[in-house]
Write a structure and sequence with these properties.
The complex is a heterotrimer of chains A (235), B (79) and C (125). Chain A is mainly alpha-helical and 235 residues long. Chain A has helices spanning 3-6, 9-29, 41-47, 56-64, 66-86, 101-123, 132-149, 157-182, 206-229. Chain A contains nine helices and no strands. The radius of gyration of chain A is 24 Å and the shape is globular. The chains are: A mainly alpha (235), B mainly alpha (79), C mainly alpha (125).
Chain lengths: 235, 79, 125
């Protein structure tokens, strides 16, 4: 890589100037950083007592900021739709995977374990680190393993569509039921006891919403991965 | 002890990221990006954020790298 | 030396400078590389730098992770859970948008056969 020939001088000088400016600014700002600052999370950590959920990050993502999660699911849906429209997948042509006997046997043995682990991470999201996003992507990577190693495996298109629509519609329905019974969208309308913190059935509607988010993310990632593998070769 | 490990991991991440940008073969770039994700997971664990570390591990080293590798295969690069 | 590196000001300085250097490595790759997949990889490096900066700035060494169990029941001694919740969403969205961009690049290659951004000039006048 010849510096003088490949990279124009204007780019390099602008880059160096901006680097110097930003580093100077940050070094000046670090002098005034208060170390015992007031945190935004203190008020929310105190509010968590009323919900009775052990994982505070789950409460923030699903309950206190539930509307942001709804928007994030919408963005994922649009991205998956865009990938499906751009690459018109054709089930006859796919990337030829030449795999031998060892890979096929090992992936067939590992696939149920990966799915079980993904469901475990999804269901116990309110008690230990984990949740819907992580569990859904684990399930999608299990589907990816089977797609790579077997020649004729594919998830049927109707199954992906059914899971995705069911999860999306039920998320909004749960929000509307909260609006009906408690006057807040996505309110916690299932009676929950604070003394149950740490048990599987606790927190009211929060683990239910996170499982629905996990199903939607898992089916969308599986759809994206399958569309990428099955792109037809003739335009 | 925590500060020393954070400093060492940051130096490692910057070296691996620079190697990923200047490589000629594109498959090597994607593997070094996976190395940046691995260093990120270690740093998120040291910052006492287990949820974020789990998400970055599954996405950065699982599905994210696969998306880039399939794109390279479709674009006809030597993998 | 280990006690010197464990002070809060020194940790914040290390985190800020390291994350900014990583951001500039990614910016250098974005400005000077020609292949389109290299550009996407540089964008992914820049996103990782911002996530590290966000969580590193709200890190307190004496407090613990924000999960309540039998031994940690005081919520006043926990780290801040709000930046972690926001970064969780941002990581997933970043990967989905990169998948969309990669599918655009594949379609363009199948249509015209070009992968260098210098030669993509159909919309120039």
């Amino acid at each position: 890589m010849n510096i003088k020939r490949d990279i124009p001088t204007a780019t390099l000088s602008g880059f160096a100037l901006s680097a110097v400016l930003v580093l100077t600014l940050i070094t000046i700002l670090l002098q005034y950083l208060p170390l015992s600052q007031q945190r935004v999370g203190d008020a929310l950590l105190a509010l968590n007592e009323k919900e009775g959920v052990a994982n505070v990050v789950t409460t923030v993502v699903v309950y206190f900021r539930g509307f942001d999660t709804l928007g994030e699911i919408a963005v994922l849906f649009i991205a998956s739709l865009g990938v499906g429209v751009m690459l018109q997948p054709n089930t006859e042509c796919r990337l030829k995977a030449e795999s031998n006997f060892m890979l096929q046997t090992a992936s067939t043995l590992l696939f149920p374990l990966i799915i079980l682990f993904g469901i475990y991470v999804m269901v116990y999201g309110h008690l230990s680190p984990g949740g819907g996003f992580q569990g859904g992507v684990i399930i999608a990577s299990g589907v990816l393993l089977l797609l790579i190693s077997h020649k004729n495996f594919e998830v049927p298109h109707t199954v992906i569509v059914a899971f995705e629509t069911f999860a999306g519609v039920s998320y909004v329905l749960i929000g509307l039921m909260g609006l009906l019974l408690l006057d807040t969208f996505l309110g916690n309308f299932i009676p929950h006891d604070i003394a149950n913190m740490g048990m599987l059935l606790s927190g009211g509607v929060i683990p239910l919403i996170y499982i629905i988010v996990g199903i939607k993310v898992g089916s969308e990632m599986s759809g994206i991965v399958q569309n990428l593998m099955q792109r037809s070769d003739d335009v | 002890m925590t500060g020393f490990i954070i400093l060492a991991t940051f130096v490692g991440i910057i070296v691996v990221a620079f190697a990923s940008v200047v490589q000629k073969r594109l498959a090597d770039s994607v593997v070094f990006l996976m190395g940046v994700g691995l260093g990120s997971v270690v740093l998120f664990f040291l910052f006492k954020a287990p949820d974020v570390a789990l998400t970055e591990a599954v996405i950065g080293a699982g599905v994210g790298t696969f998306i880039f590798l399939i794109a390279l295969k479709h674009l006809g690069e030597q993998a | 030396m280990f006690e010197f590196l464990n002070q809060p000001e020194v940790i914040k300085t290390i985190v800020t400078l390291g994350a900014m250097l990583l951001f500039f490595v990614g910016l250098f790759g974005l400005l000077t590389r020609k292949h389109i997949v290299k550009v996407f990889i540089s964008i992914a490096i820049m996103e990782s730098a911002i996530f590290l900066l966000f969580i590193g700035l709200s890190f307190n060494r004496e407090k613990v992770a924000p999960i309540i169990d039998a031994t940690q029941t005081q919520v006043a001694t926990m780290n801040d859970p709000i930046p972690q919740a926001m970064i969780l969403t941002a990581i997933v969205i970043g990967m989905a948008v990169l998948a969309l961009g990669v599918s655009f690049a594949i379609e363009y290659y199948k249509l015209t056969g070009k992968t260098e951004i210098d030669t993509m000039n159909e919309m120039r006048f």
